[in-house]
Amino acid sequence: MSTITNHMPTEELQALDAAHHMHPFTCNGELAQKGARVITRADGVTLTDSEGNQILDAMAGLWCVNIGYGRDELADVAARQMRELPYYNTFFQTTHRPAIELAQKIAELAPGDLNNVFFAGSGSEANDTNLRMVRHYWALKGKPSKSIVISRKNAYHGSTVASGSLGGMTGMHEQGGMPIPDIHHINQPNWWAEGGDTSPEAFGLAKAQELEKAILELGEDRVAAFIAEPIQGAGGVIVAPESYWPEVQRICDKYEILLIADEVICGFGRTGEWFGSQTVNIRPDIMTIAKGLSSGYAPIGGSIVSDEVASVIATGEFNHGYTYSGHPVAAAVALENLRILEEEDVIGHVQNVAAPYLKEQWEGLQDHPLVGEAKIVGMMGSIALTPNKETRAVFAADTGTVGYICRERCFANNLVMRHVGDRMIISPPLVIKPEEIDLLIACARTSLDECYAQLKEDGLLQSA
Ligand SMILES: *Cc1c(COP(=O)(O)O)cnc(C)c1O
């Protein structure tokens, strides 16, 4: 019997948490001093913590709760599936109804000839699959030297050894011996931070052409694939200039490089289409999916694979898989989530109601003295904090100092908005209503004002 309940005093829960729980992407020593925020329940777009605070979750958890919290249908489906068949694997020539049905549904939703699904338990695992699959694909085609995957600096593709290596986060590469060999990183199309005096369009084209340069330098016979998020999420919601993606697609086609679109955040409505690849108009050979696939209600991810790649892989045994590949409960929950997205026309709500209104309101923040660019595509947005918008200056203080102060003000105002360095980011549930967007923007504005006042007081408004 559990002796720990939500009714215990917050400090007791925090002390128990600090005693035994190692948090991801956290300085656990510091958190133990401060005490973790304890979330007790959630409904719609709103979290409740152990102190009874109602918090607007403008991050949809970790970019995943697309349909919002508190949907009983998913709980019912999970309970039913657990009673009927809680687990069986999909190895050794077996299958079950939820895996069959989910693969079929995903193939129906995915564009082009992306008709084949390899299931995983998470986005990280799916990218591990992708790395092995593209190398194995080229080996089966008689070109085993094509093993290098090109990725981008500041990309996020997960936290396992392979996916963390594919990612371009230097803070991750510094720990635990990453990246592994044969992963090559080129620059990201982050015009605000790195564009200097060039126009966004010229900059976007130049960054795409870095892919061509890398292929020519490494050798066409060495490169297996290029992997990228249609819109970089954890890197700070970096939206490429419009010139970028057409050029990337041209280069992948010209040199026969497989294109892997990491749709873990962008997929399932986040950008206003079913997939971010449709928003930026690319034709990937493989898509990575997770997060919004189940709206976070159950852990599940996967790779959606083109007919061409799948048919080559199908010629032999692919020695790869996870105990929970196509887990029946997770698959059933994902199916119910997709049913809701489709039948309630959640993507129509994004296109016609939520995204246009959020865009107008979000871009309105640009008049704030701290806000440089305000970017938003569908339901993922970012603002660059700056001491001087005209020069796109960065703060003299260490990167992230100001972002952290702003994030703390947001928390104090019961708004979950994250910071990546000195960029603030949002990715709210897709079902957010206009009046909830008003609340989001009002809290964001108050927090920006308070942050600005504090920066003035602490002398942190200087440019580097
Ligand atoms: C979150 C994320 C991942 C990793 O997914 P996990 O389920 O955390 O392993 C991979 N790619 C992108 C783009 C992500 O945002």
- Strand fraction band? 15-25%
Main sheet summary:
7 strands, mixed
Unreliable runs, pLDDT <50, ≥5 residues? none
Structural class: alpha/beta
Helical amount: 40-55%
What top-tier CATH class of the largest domain fits best? Alpha Beta
CATH superfamily of the largest domain: Type I PLP-dependent aspartate aminotransferase-like (Major domain)
Radius of gyration, in angstroms, nearest whole number: 22 Å
Bound small-molecule species:
pyridoxal-5'-phosphate
What is the number of helices?
A: 17
Average of the residue pLDDT scores: 97
Query: Could you state the oligomeric state of the chains shown?
Result: single chain
- Name the strands of the widest sheet in spatial order: 4-10-9-8-7-5-6
DSSP strand count: 15
How many separate structural domains? 2
Shape, principal axes of CA atoms: globular
CATH topology of the largest domain: Aspartate Aminotransferase, domain 2
Ends apart, CA distance between termini: 56 Å
CATH architecture of the largest domain: 3-Layer(aba) Sandwich
